[in-house]
TrEMBL record:
Monomer. It comes from Cyphomyrmex costatus. The lineage of its organism: Eukaryota, Metazoa, Ecdysozoa, Arthropoda, Hexapoda. InterPro entries: aa-tRNA-synth_II, aa-tRNA-synth_II/BPL/LPL, Fdx_antiC-bd, Fdx_antiC-bd_sf, Phe-tRNA-synth_IIc_mito, Phenylalanyl-tRNA_Synthase. PROSITE patterns: AA_TRNA_LIGASE_II (PS50862), FDX_ACB (PS51447). This is Phenylalanine--tRNA ligase, mitochondrial. It is an enzyme of class 6 (ligase). Residues 123-298 form the Aminoacyl-transfer RNA synthetases class-II family profile domain. One of its GO terms (biological process) is phenylalanyl-tRNA aminoacylation. One of its GO terms (molecular function) is ATP binding.
């Protein structure tokens, strides 16, 4: 049972109980939660920036769409190639071979366009199997946006606009545009997309934030870019965006429009904005964390002050991998999380070694244990650590050394 629905399981099923337990948290709409403040600031920006002639906001907001989606929604509808690495079982949480927890909020794009929407934001929780450290967590939150425009809308301010068209029939794809688009339509869209997003970055991080654009690739947009901002002397990638693949609009019935889209991750921004040092804090129910964000105005400047940092315990674990190649480190991370929960701060691959005679591979990992609200005893850590060892020996066919 997931969110009141029954699903069949099969050999693709890899969702874990600790992930399922968090499906109903919806941090992005939890009152006073930092992710909710940031979501509200982004929504307010779009409400303020885009209004119809009568003054009503153009963008509609979808922030409670169920995260259980089909492979078709998450990948096929977005033209993700059948052999694309993001489809792998080691990277996503599958409920069964046709159903998964969405890996991005873009999964809902085609459906919302089919419903006739031209301007919308989708905000929600997304799920990815990944490394374990202070900036990665298997669940995070994204904001996706789509804006579709007709020829009339984008060329209305241009002098001889009768000669300007969205589409071109014998075009070819280049770095600048898709085959079917006219260069002038793409340039107008690119300009609106980029100015919208740099002013969004300024609305969040202040007028003086430095931005730069980097070319990118996404299966569902072309051309595509990433926006980076300079933060504490580091260029930080904050979002991906681009001109939507016309095939997606065509299949969804928006044949007379051209569109731009973007997607951004809330945690990454919120950690910088509020100075939150560890991604696990977003999931904390501790009042020492939550009370620092108890403000009614989402624009209030807040800098999180760690109550104290409790000391870590670091234990190593080494094992021989099975010889059939079935080992994936992401399986190990999920099992460790299942047993240790949020007490596991980081898992580091310390050493990989191939035995010269037997040719067997051995991995050595350091597991960093740290509780967010108290000091852990070495005894308590050893217990968890032994459980982890037993579980992976049983489930992953590895041999502990
Ligand atoms: N879905 C992409 C991601 O998760 C972001 C994106 C959305 C890029 C929309 C382009 C357009 O990384």
């Amino acid at each position: 049972m997931l969110l009141g629905q029954k699903y069949v399981t099969d050999d693709w099923t890899n969702v874990t109980p600790s992930i399922i337990a968090k499906l109903e948290r919806n941090l992005h709409v939890q009152q006073y939660h930092p992710l909710s403040h940031l979501r509200q600031r982004i929504v307010n920006y779009f409400y303020g920036q885009f209004r119809s002639k009568s003054g009503t906001p153009s963008f509609s907001i979808y922030d409670n769409i169920c995260p259980v989606v089909t492979v078709e929604q998450n990948f096929d509808s977005l033209l993700v190639p059948k052999d694309h690495p993001s489809r792998k079982k080691t990277d996503c949480y599958f409920i069964n071979q046709d159903t998964l927890l969405r890996a991005h909020t873009t999964a809902h794009q085609a459906e919302l366009i089919s419903m006739g929407l031209n301007n919308f934001l989708v905000i929600g929780d997304v799920y990815r199997r990944d490394e374990i450290d202070r900036t990665h967590y298997p669940i995070f939150h994204q904001v996706d946006a789509v804006r579709l425009r007709t020829s009339q809308e984008i060329f209305c301010n241009v002098n001889d606009s009768e000669n300007l068209k969205l589409f071109e029939h014998r075009g070819t794809e280049s770095a600048d545009k898709q085959a079917c688009h006219s260069l002038e339509a793409v340039k107008v869209m690119e300009q609106e997309l980029k100015s919208t997003l740099t002013s969004l970055a300024q609305a969040i991080f202040g007028k003086d934030v430095q931005c730069r654009w980097v070319d990118q690739y996404f299966p569902f947009t072309h051309p595509s870019w990433e926006l980076e901002i300079l933060h504490n002397d580091d260029w930080l990638e904050i979002l991906g965006c681009g001109i939507m693949r016309q095939e997606i609009l065509q299949k969804s019935g928006a044949t007379d429009r051209i569109g731009w889209a973007f997607g951004l991750g809330l945690e990454r921004l919120a950690m910088r904005l509020y100075n939150i040092p560890d991604i696990r804090l977003f999931w904390s129910n501790d009042t020492g964390f939550l009370n620092q964000f108890k403000v009614d105005e989402p624009n209030v400047h807040i800098q999180y002050k760690p109550i104290s940092i409790y000391p870590p315990c670091i234990n190593d674990i080494s094992f021989w991998l099975p010889e059939d190649g079935s080992y994936s480190s992401h399986d190990f991370y999920d099992i460790a999380r299942e047993i240790g929960g949020d007490v596991i701060e980081q898992i580091l691959l310390k050493d990989e070694f191939i035995h010269p005679k037997t040719k067997k591979t051995s991995h050595c990992y350091s597991i960093v244990y740290r509780h967010m609200e108290r000091t852990l005893t070495q005894n308590a850590v050893n217990k968890i650590h032994n459980e982890v060892g037993k579980a992976i020996a049983a489930k992953l066919n590895v041999v502990i050394r």
